[in-house]
Structure formats: structure tokens, C-alpha cells
Amino acid sequence: MKRPELITIAGAGLVGSLLGVMLGKRGYRVQIYEQRPDMRGQQVSAGRSINLALAERGIHALKQAGLMQAVEPLLIPMRGRMLHDLAGRTEFQSYGQRSHEVIYSVSRGGLNELMLTAAEDSRQVEIYFEHELDSIDFASNTVQFTDVSNARPLTVSTELLIGADGAGSRVRRSLLPFVKGTDRSELLDHDYKELTIPPGAEGKHQMDRESLHIWPRGGFMLIALPNLDGSFTVTLFLQKQGNPSFAELSDRPSVESFFRSQFPDAMELIPGLVDEFFANPTGILGTVRCDPWLDRDRVLLIGDASHAIVPFHGQGMNSGFEDCELLIRLLDRFEDDWTAAMEEFNRVRPADADALADMALENYITMRDSVLDPRFGLKKELGFRLEREHPARFIPRYSMVMFHRIPYGDAKRRGIIQQAILEELVDGVESIDQVNMVRAGELVQQRLEPLGESALA
Ligand SMILES: Cc1cc2nc3c(=O)[nH]c(=O)nc-3n(C[C@H](O)[C@H](O)[C@H](O)COP(=O)(O)OP(=O)(O)OC[C@H]3O[C@@H](n4cnc5c(N)ncnc54)[C@H](O)[C@@H]3O)c2cc1C
Predict the structure, then answer these.
(1) Are the C-beta atoms of 304 and 316 separated by less than 8 Å?
(2) Which residues approach ligand 1 with their CB closer than 6 A?
(3) How far apart (Å, rounded) are the C-alpha atoms in residues 252 and 258?
(4) Mind giving me the DSSP string for 90-143?
């Protein structure tokens, strides 16, 4: 049984700061070390994407932390995908079928700042900015940091260190060799680049504000999420090498001609396209899978540090927030016995994270390619109908992941069965009225066990 006097967290990003809030609320003393300067009141990049999609799992965790009311003004609902074809025509595909089944665009910086302040306001949490974790000395239970403001080294004793230091986690890189664990991290062969569609006249959004916009082009895509100031953050996802690729977009004419041929309507809305293209960094994407996520009851990994994923399901932050909420639930269950809570966390969570990583990779193909297939629309319509008729058994996979808190492993497993049912029912069928709904009911009853009450909440 262990109840630490002081908890050290590496990283005050989205997950580290939320965990700080939650642990502070629970009465723990927490010290967070963050390598970047304090982003509040300064122009400090929040890193990675400028805005993100927040969904049910993240919202639930924010509610548990008592933060949702403060977060609400930062949110813009996105009710579905707005697909843009080459000719500039648009088609809206709803994400869900109930009014509350929406996801929300939120500013990464705005959300992070709010959580930093909430953590400090608890008076239980101290945040040391510009402190970069270098390494862990397991023999002496100490951590080496560098104060980057003056390049001075600092050694800190830790009872419990939680690594919330993101996909490139130094905590993970120190931990895994020490515990002889495995790291199966993989980079994606596609990168990303962010651009901006500025606000239009009177600060209004220049495209539908309540949609996640996608320009699916088969092997690559452009997406855009709305910001509160009337702008959209646009992201190009494209392979590193080949045709077309980031490697080919090496000068002004190649960027202009690529956008003119592939995204002419979006290009018109991005006035600083080429300058921004070369000024903004090209980001890398990847999946982190590692084992274990802990060393006994003294080091634990959380969020991207243990399970970074590609961003195509909009779940990286949401799953990291769910990690925090799960950890607190386990502390409730084990009455703050950290040894037991950490063991259980490490027993149940990696399989779900693994399933999510697979679904996120699959969703890249869905977003950039499958959404264009008329059969995709038919299966989506049928999926909604089956959900209406068999709500306790059939929930479309996207909805299980985004609008429910069904464990990711179950969502993946049920999603495979559901996909097979949908394929069978639309075989040789042109429209939804031709689907044999009696057979549909039989298949659902035979192959899908009912979901538990809690899954349907
Ligand atoms: C393009 C893109 C789009 C995305 N879209 C979505 C989305 O729509 N929805 C969603 O849910 N998720 C999305 N994600 C995923 C999401 O960004 C991550 O899952 C989330 O940021 C993870 O939070 P984290 O706190 O674990 O890691 P991070 O946000 O990476 O935070 C880690 C923190 O640790 C600090 N740090 C790192 N190393 C050290 C060190 N050595 N010492 C001290 N501090 C350190 C960093 O400065 C940072 O502040 C997206 C990701 C990308 C790249």
C-alpha cells in the first residue's frame, strides 16, 4: 500500500495539466516540470495541432475534474464532415443521429492554459516551467532536469514520477531499458502541415462553422477545423516521399500547382498559402506502443508518453483524458493504494490503447478515401437505422468511439462484427429500402451481445 506525499509529473501538456488538476483536487501535493516556458500571456506555441476535436471521453473527464463549465465557451460544435470534391461541390455527412452526438473543436492553447491555471488554483500543484527532464536515476530515485532558462542542472528526489511528457517521452526512454520492456513505436510515412483560412468579412467563418471540413483525395487529404476567431486551421496530410509528396513540394511553383490542381476552392481561401507553407514546420506522426507502462509503484506513463496515436480518429487527447479519469477511478476503488491502482491501470489500459491505435490508423483510409465511396454512405445510413432499431446491440463504430465510453477494445471487436453484418446486408443492394430488415434483425440478434447499461449511458 502506498500513498505518496509528493507526486512529480513530467510535462504540463494537455494530459499532465489535467492530471495535476485531478490529483490536486484529491488532496495530493504535486510538482509538474515542463520544458517549455509558461504559455499564459505569451506567444508560446502549444506544440502540435492548433485546435483539436474534443469528444465524450474527454468531456466526461473534464466534468469529473470540475472544469467543463469553464471549457464550454472555448468550444465550437462540429456536427459532421463536410466533404469537398475537386469541383468545389460539398456534401455533408452527419457524425451521429441524435442532437447531442457532435464533437467539438477546441483550441489546444486555450484548453491547456485553462488547466494550468486550475491546477495552480488548487494550491496543491506547483508548476516549474523551463525545466526539461533529462534522465532518471532508478538506483537513487532521483530525476535529472535542466533549467533551460540558465542551463543549470537540477536533481530532484521523487517518490512517484508520472511521465506525461508526450510521444517522444524521455521518461519512457529511461524506463523501458531499465525494466527490460519493449517499445514498438512506429512512424507513419505521412507527415502534416498546418495552414490558415483567415476570418472573412466581419470576422465571420468563410465556410460552414459547425463542420469538420475534409478534402479527401484518395492517398492524401486536407482537413479544416473552425476556431472561435472566425478562422479555420487547415491541415494537409500527405506522404513524405513519392508522387505527390512533401518531398516534391520544395518550391513555390510546386506548392501552388499542387493546391491549384487538388484543392482549388480551399486555395482561394488561404491568402498566404505559399509563405505559410514554407514558414510552418512539417510535423511527423506515429504510433507508440510499449510495455510495461510502469516500474512498480514509482514510475508510471500516461497519455501520449505510453500510447501516442495518429490523429485520424481525433482521440489522442480524449484517450489521455480518459487515462486520467480511469486512474482516479482506480484510486477510488483501491482507496488510494497506488501500488494496486497502478498495477490495475497497467493491466487493463494498454489493450484498449492498442485497439484505439489500430482504429486511428484505419480511420485515415476512411477519411481520405472510403468517404468518397457511395457504398460508404449506404452502410452509414443502414448503421444508423440498425442503431435506432436495436439500440442495446448496434451502435456504429464511430459513435462507440466518439459519443460513448465503451472500452476501445470492445468498440474495435464489435466494429468488426458490425462491418461484416453491414457488408452482408448491402451486398447486391442499391438503396436502403432494398435492404432485408428481417435478416438484419436476425444478424444483429445472433452476432452482437447486448451492451451493458453503463456502455449506453
Ligand atoms: C496534427 C494533430 C492533430 C490532433 N488532433 C487531435 C484531435 O482532434 N483530438 C484528440 O483527442 N487528439 C488529437 N491529437 C492528439 C493530441 O495532440 C495528443 O494526444 C495530446 O496532445 C496528448 O497529450 P499529452 O499531454 O500526453 O502530450 P503532449 O500534448 O505532447 O504534452 C507533453 C508535454 O510534455 C512536455 N515535455 C516533453 N518532453 C519533456 C521533458 N523532457 N521535460 C519536461 N517536459 C517535457 C512538452 O513540452 C508538452 O508540454 C492530435 C495530434 C496531432 C499531432
Answers:
(1) yes
(2) 10-16, 33-36, 47-49, 52-53, 132-133, 164-166, 170, 192, 235, 283, 303-305, 311, 314-318, 320
(3) 10
(4) EEEEES-SSTT--EEEEEHHHHHHHHHHHHHHTTSEEEETTEEEEEEETTTTEE
DSSP 8-state code for residue 115: H
Report pLDDT for 44. Answer: 63
Identity of the amino acid at 12 = A
Q: Which residues, given as ranges, of the chain have pLDDT below 50?
A: none
Find cell 477546441 and name the residue.
106
Residue 8: the pLDDT is 98
Pocket test of ligand 1: the residue of 52, 74, 115, 309 to mutate, having most ligand atoms within 8 Å of its CB, is 52
Beta bridge partners of 32: 9, 127
Pairing of strands 160-163, 182-183: unpaired
- Pseudo-torsion of CA 16, 301, 318, 229, nearest 10°? 40
For the purposes of burial, counting CB atoms within 10 Å of the CB of 286, is it exposed (0-12), middle (13-18) or buried (19 or more)? middle
Alpha carbon of 194 to ligand 1 centroid (Å): 16
Nine cell digits for residue 2:
502506498
Helix pair angle (374-389, 437-447), 10° resolution: 70
Q: How far apart (Å, rounded) are the C-alpha atoms in residues 158 and 177?
A: 19
DSSP 8-state secondary structure symbol assigned to residue 221: E
* pLDDT tens, position by position, 21-30: 999 999 999 9
Q: Please state, in angstroms and rounded to a whole number, the distance separating the CA atoms of residues 75 and 105.
A: 6
- What pairing do the DSSP bridges indicate for beta strands 211-216 and 80-84? parallel
pLDDT in tens, 191-249: 999 999 999 989 999 999 999 999 999 999 999 999 999 999 999 999 999 999 999 99
**Cβ–Cβ under 8 Å, residues 17 and 108:** no
Of residues 309, 315, 310, the one with CA closest to residue 290: 309
Whole-number Å distance between alpha carbons of 397 and 420: 12
Angle at which helices 108-121 and 14-25 cross, to 10°: 30
Tell me which H or E stretch contains 456. helix 453-456
Per-residue CA distances from 153 to 7, 147, 266 (Å): 20, 6, 48
pLDDT for the residue numbered 374? 85
- Give the model's pLDDT for residue 454: 63
Interatomic CA distance for residues 299 and 163, integer angstroms: 7
> Long-range contacts: 422-428, Cβ < 8 Å, 24+?
422/379, 422/382, 422/383, 423/379, 425/382, 426/375, 426/378, 426/379, 426/382
